[in-house]
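retry 2 of 3: previous attempt timed out while embedding MF3. Reduced batch size to 1 and resubmitted. Inputs unchanged:
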Amino acid sequence: MIRIKNSVEIEKMRKAGKLAAQLLNHIEPYVKEGVSTLYLNNLCAVYTKIHGAVSAPLNYGGFPKSICTSINNVVCHGIPSANDILKSGDIVNIDVTVILDGFHGDTSRTFIIGNVDSSISDFVHRAEKAMNLGIDAVKPGRYLYEVGRTIEQYISRFGYSIVRDYTGHGIGEKFHENPQVFHHFTKANRIRLREGMIFTIEPMINMGNSYKVRTSRQDGWTVTTTDGSLSAQFEHTILVTAQGTEILTVV
Ligand code: MF3
Ligand code: CO
Ligand code: CO
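retry 2 succeeded.
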């Protein structure tokens, strides 16, 4: 049910992960006040293509664009648009996934635009730390639920909440494979970690105390917090190694 990748597959996942990380770095200087999320989408589409890869989100389950851009109270799956112009005080998650030589690399970061209140920058930095603590919890022989347990233990002290309806996922030749990786503690993830597993860790953290989200009835994609609070997310694709983990979505 959970496929263990062989050394050839792992090498291809390293290359795909590296390209996804390079793509995020490529657009970073453009993620500024005044730019539209459609412009960022188009930069990503071109960069991906010239590097011989394919944008995985485009047409995935009918998704209409090449990346996801999720601003402020948007949790995930925001659709890039010419009408969405970044402004000072916004936070925006940019989630990119490339397919290179048949294998996927999936990574995202939340960027802060201009000046935000320190309560908001603290929140974003804690969302990143939550992802990193989750990654550090991964070791062969442990249960996968240690990821969610670790993230929950860290996040709960701030009064934030962890989205439950969207999870990390196995990844390889398919965008979303088993297992689902929960970012809160649940026995559903009583699964032994084994060397050669590859999955994402991508906690979506809501600044308010409600983890509830809803999907837009207008576009069928945009997921927002039900209470209107901000949501932040960071994502890496990781490989379980004998020592612990190797982050694949790094340059
Ligand atoms: N990149 C997202 C993830 O981390 C999935 C986006 S699916 C799409 O799993 F269809 F919205 F692109
Ligand atoms: Co992603
Ligand atoms: Co993902």
